[in-house]
Specification:
The chain is α/β, with parallel strands linked by helices and about 325 residues long. It contains 11 helices and 12 strands. The strands form 2 sheets. An 8-stranded mixed β-sheet has the order 6-7-8-3-9-10-12-11, sandwiched between helices. The chain has a 4-stranded antiparallel β-sheet with strand order 2-1-4-5. It is globular.
């Protein structure tokens, strides 16, 4: 039996909109709005959705890099949001993040050894020769040469810089890692190498990932379970095979229809969504997806659906699932 390592309950992250002479709060951008799910130890949860749907904001809020507006996030039964500065500092050893753009997330003034070894000094783990040995070991397991610790970030390619970012994240032996679109800024030829490296490191160090991406093919490759986000909410979550073979939410159905199929004989119908994504500052009443849904009924425009279990391990937020609206045509 797998045990939960991260559990989210009704996570919210709103950014205030200020206006007027006194800069009063006149509204909120609901970047993450009432998100709940569980990530089991040693597994990978893929988080997918359009740009701007709140994926990265959710990942950073879980780690308390952004202060939450509401909800609770548990790591090994400890509420991350209720930790003080000292407790959070201790948790940082076990909770890490791999950023999207390795060039902007690496300090150009420091060499690679200083970048990777910085966290070891901050947390008082090791110093001197032991620190250098740890840095060289992490470089080696991430596919770089030990002597690269003397070089600076601008001397590496994009893929190599992401390997440095991964090495930095894993230096303190964390248990849970948020991978915030770690391959989106890389060449297609390099993306598979980085994903394969992450899988190898997961087996070696027993890691648990939240893998954020908009690449559905890569998510299917690396993930055990997949959660689909739309306008700040999770609309569907289940095992990867179940999601790709039996998508039940109309938005998931549309996303999967856009994935290229290599088989020239395979027939697939592309679903084109009408309209644009509504503003998170003024989401529509009822179901967030109803303005773009081809199946929307009056109930969808008035009543917000709950994320409920339709079959074992398969949760969907849709009023009309029982009518078969999520079945591929």
């Amino acid at each position: 039996m797998t045990e939960p390592i991260v559990k989210l309950e009704n996570i919210k992250k709103y950014f205030p909109i200020r206006g007027g002479v006194f800069s009063r709060v006149v509204g909120n951008i609901k970047a993450v709005d009432d998100v709940s799910f569980v990530i089991n130890k040693g597994e990978t949860l893929g988080l997918v959705g359009e740009s701007g749907c709140g994926k990265s904001t959710l990942g950073r809020t879980i780690l308390k890099l952004l202060d939450p507006t509401g909800g609770r996030a548990f790591y090994k039964n400890n509420d991350i949001f209720k930790t003080d500065k000292q407790q959070l500092r201790h948790l940082r050893r076990e909770l890490q993040i791999i950023f999207q753009d390795p060039f902007s997330s690496l300090n150009p003034r420091l060499n690679v050894g200083e970048i990777i070894g910085e966290s070891l000094e901050i947390h008082g783990e090791v110093s001197g020769k032991e620190k250098q040995e740890r840095v060289e070991y992490m470089l080696e397991v991430c596919g770089l040469a030990p002597h690269h610790h003397r070089r600076y970030p601008h001397e590496f390619s994009g893929g190599q810089r992401q390997r440095i970012g991964i090495a930095r994240a894993l230096t303190l032996n964390p248990d849970f890692v948020v991978a915030d679109e770690p391959i989106s800024s890389l060449d297609v030829s390099i993306q598979a190498q980085i994903v394969n490296l992450m899988e190898e490191l997961q087996d070696t160090f027993g890691l648990t990932y939240l893998f954020i991406s908009h690449d559905l093919s890569m998510v299917r490759h690396i993930s055990n379970n997949v959660a689909v986000m739309y306008l700040g909410k999770v609309v569907e979550i289940c095992g990867k095979n179940e999601l790709y073979q039996n998508p039940l939410h109309p938005y998931t159905q549309a996303l999967l229809s856009a994935v290229p199929i290599m088989d020239p004989d395979a027939k697939s119908k592309r679903i084109i969504l009408k309209g644009d994504v509504p503003s998170p500052a003024n989401p529509p009443p009822g179901c967030n997806f109803n303005p773009r849904c081809r199946y929307a009924e009056e109930r969808c425009r008035q009543e917000e659906p709950e994320l409920r279990e339709i079959s074992p391990g398969h949760q969907v937020s849709c009023h009309l699932v029982e009518k078969g609206v999520g079945k591929l045509d």
